[in-house]
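Thread: Newbie trying to understand structure tokens

Hi all, I'm a second-year student working on a class project, and my supervisor (Dr. K.) asked me to get a predicted structure for one chain before our next meeting. I've only ever worked with sequences, so writing a 3D structure as a token string is new to me. If someone could post the tokens and maybe explain what I'm looking at, I'd be very grateful. Here's the chain:
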Amino acid sequence: MPTTLVLRIKTPPQKPALDLALAKQHLRIDHDEDDALLGMYINAASSWVEKYTGRALITTEYTMAVGDQPIANAWPMTPSPLLVLPLAYSWPPMQPQPMRLLRAPFLTFGGIQVINPDGTQEIISPAEYQLDAASEPANFRLTGSFGLLRGRHLLVTFTAGYGADNSSIPFDIQLALCILVAYFYENRGDMSMDAMPDAAASLLFNYRMVFFGA
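---
Reply by user tm_fold:
Sure, no problem. This is what the structure looks like when written as tokens:
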């Protein structure tokens, strides 16, 4: 995998991931005095769920900065007397590794921009990368003659999310959001953020993306 990955929001979601009315119904609140506070809690709960699961809840446009990419499969781990091929060759062949997009579910791909060490920028042609949109999360692999050399960085643009509003978010994720909003509201800062409440974590278990190895 690349040595550095930084994810930033380019275009934030236009609507909240949880209706205020639903959160108030869950909390059995029948007044409006705490609406602003609950709105803040909804945003905080949504951010926590997105980081915990690796998923965008509402359609969001991201930029992902990719640093120097090491080359996979460069040299075999064999004793030096067995390396009889010229140094110009390697086995297996040197190929760039696929790079995961850091949010799912994938919606659209906006392209890849190269930032050179001198600050100049260029656009990578779609012919020079291969996008795997069927995987979750989606990933791409540089192909052709392009190489991500030392000091060059990529800026990848993509969108992810369940939809433009919360009607497409699975109900168990919405219930987890309600639980987290209630957790914030009832504890008012006197709480631990080391771990998500068990009920919310159980509801999100099947949606969490966990990766092993590179």
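A couple of things are worth pointing out once you decode it. The mean pLDDT is 84. The helical segments are 20-27, 35-53, 171-187, 198-204. Feel free to ask follow-ups in this thread.
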